[in-house]
Amino acid sequence: MKKDKRGVSPLIAAVLLVGFAVAMAAFVSTFVIKKTEEFKPESFIQDSALCESVSISYELMKNNNGDILLNFDDAGDINIMHGLTIKNKGPFTVYKITINPPGQKSQEYAINDGIKPGKFLGGETIADATELPLGFKKTTTDNTIKIVPWIKDPEKEEDDPEKNVVCTKRPLYINPVDICKKVIHEDKQASECSWAA
Q1: Do 19 and 100 reside in the same domain of the chain?
Q2: Structure pTM?
Q3: What is the tens place of the pLDDT at every residue in 95-126?
């Protein structure tokens, strides 16, 4: 008895190949579209070699008598800290900062004339500096606020999208509880910082 060894007909083979090709095209195009949506060109301009020397710090503002002006506003589940300013300790002008408070959305804070090297936010000296109010949630266990500086690449044209450089590896961390404890210890302003004890 002879066995029938016929293969798949050419028509069915062609249909299967076309179907397989369409399925593969759909899979590849979905993958490429997803990766394209995830692509963030600004990630390529973060932390260039220029950022290595970027450095910012916070300073407590004082009145003419030398008293620290630190105070806190109660805004429901958020405390707003007043009496701080930012100092640029690096060689590049800081044009913008991103404020990342825990438990809240990050905010970008554009600085009109920038913070020049060795200067303060809004002024040449701490006496004429501008305050930077910072909010933080009372309910979070870690109240550390992260501030990321932005600089401009001096070798790029003003309209070049790569002109702005985000220095994510050179942030300033501000912990309101630690600041309060330091103020209580040094200046005995316990009333303003009773919540941090």
Answers
A1: no
A2: 0.68
A3: 999 999 887 888 898 998 899 999 999 888 88
